[in-house]
């Protein structure tokens, strides 16, 4: 037991000599922020409020998207996609407007593509974009693979890359425990935005 303790101490001293490693250790030693396995997120620049599942079983986060179309802009690869609010109906409403009457359209540079292997189905190529969002009153940014999550309970999945990089710990026994909220738009406000299109 004594030799194991000494070895651990020597290893710690060696790592502390590297500034990059010291920074990583400092981040790892900071108190993690505890979130439930389901939380509200608000996607940046739009005010869309969506339910997100915090999933350590997935490396990359994913976002519900339909009609995903690649195109070229300024000699770069971009992707255009739509987010129909009627697929999950999480957006607060202050009137008689129906969720399926509002579809938001996005355009983003393609960060990369990934090949997803699916059990009992052909592999699927997905586009990955970087997007910022608010979770627990704080702005985060991560990579989202774009896929149709209309048949899933949660339109957003936050993977372990984000959880690791932003020091978030998931409590699998609780939901919606974030202490701070993020500002979001109503369904009517989203319908009036320039990003909304007619279904």
From TrEMBL:
An example GO BP is: proteolysis
Q: Show where the Retropepsin-like aspartic endopeptidase domain sits.
A: 34-179
Please state what the protein is called: ATP-dependent zinc protease
Signal peptide interval: 1-22
Q: Which organism is it from?
A: Marinobacter alkaliphilus
| Keyword Aminoacyl-tRNA synthetase set for record | no
- Whether DNA damage counts among this entry's keywords is no
**Per UniProt, what is one Pfam family of this protein?**
Zn_protease
**What would you give as a GO molecular function for this chain, any one?**
peptidase activity
Q: Which UniProt keywords apply?
A: Hydrolase, Protease, Signal
Among PANTHER family, the record links this protein to: ATP-DEPENDENT ZINC PROTEASE DOMAIN-CONTAINING PROTEIN-RELATED (PTHR38037:SF2), ZN_PROTEASE DOMAIN-CONTAINING PROTEIN (PTHR38037)
Could you tell me the superkingdom of the organism this chain comes from?
Bacteria
């Amino acid at each position: 037991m004594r030799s194991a303790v000494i070895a651990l101490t020597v290893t710690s001293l060696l790592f502390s000599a590297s500034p990059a490693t010291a920074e990583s250790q400092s981040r790892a030693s900071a108190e993690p922020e505890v979130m439930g396995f389901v939380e509200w997120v608000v996607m940046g620049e739009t005010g869309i409020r969506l339910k997100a599942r915090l999933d350590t079983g997935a490396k990359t986060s994913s976002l519900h998207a339909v009609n995903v179309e690649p195109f070229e802009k300024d000699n770069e690869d971009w992707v255009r996609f739509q987010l129909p609010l009627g697929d999950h109906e999480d957006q607060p409403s202050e009137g008689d407007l129906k969720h399926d009457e509002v579809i938001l359209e996005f355009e983003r540079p393609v960060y990369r593509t990934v090949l997803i292997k699916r059990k009992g189905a052909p592999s699927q190529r997905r586009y990955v974009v970087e997007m910022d969002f608010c979770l627990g009153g704080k702005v985060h940014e991560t990579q989202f693979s774009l896929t149709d999550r209309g048949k899933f309970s949660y339109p957003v999945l936050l993977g372990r890359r984000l959880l690791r990089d932003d020091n978030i710990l998931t409590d699998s026994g609780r939901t919606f425990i974030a202490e701070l909220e993020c500002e979001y738009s109503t369904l009517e406000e989203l319908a009036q935005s320039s990003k909304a299109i007619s279904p």
